[in-house]
UniProtKB/TrEMBL annotation:
Name assigned to this protein: Nuclear transport factor 2 family protein
InterPro entries with a match to the protein in the record: NTF2-like_dom_sf, SnoaL-like
Position of the signal peptide: none
Sequence ranges assigned to domain SnoaL-like in this UniProt record: 21-109
Length: 117
């Protein structure tokens, strides 16, 4: 069994490559609660899969650079620098902080913090 540090590292490797379907299969719990900033949560992994599929079909020129990771007490915090072009939003270049709570080796709660303007 991998340690939490190893699982977080493996997850972040997939995220940096925009390999979200694999990340979901390996590291996310079916009852995931996912928050985008202060919005109401997406409930369940299937809702997250559908939202991500829509997002990935809408972006080009994407990159994700992992800047910092903290892992402690079944929680991980990752700082990302994202850069992409979205068909509706145009070019986006921003820093995002993702906080994840883990249970039994899976992410059960996730919140993304980033500027929206």
């Amino acid at each position: 069994m991998q340690t939490l540090n190893e699982r977080v590292q493996a997850l972040n490797t997939l995220v940096a490559q925009f390999r979200y379907p694999e990340a979901f299969d390996q590291f996310y719990h079916e009852s995931l609660l996912n928050y985008e900033n202060e919005q109401a949560p997406m409930i369940g992994l299937q809702a997250e899969r559908e939202a991500m599929e829509h997002f990935l079909n809408s972006v080009t020129n994407q990159s994700a650079e992992l800047k910092t990771v903290i892992v402690a007490d079944n929680t991980s915090v990752s700082e990302w620098l994202y850069d992409f072009t979205h068909k509706d939003w145009g070019r986006r270049h921003y820093t995002q902080i993702t906080v994840q709570r883990w249970e039994d080796g899976k992410v059960v709660h996730q919140r993304h913090h980033y500027a929206t303007n």
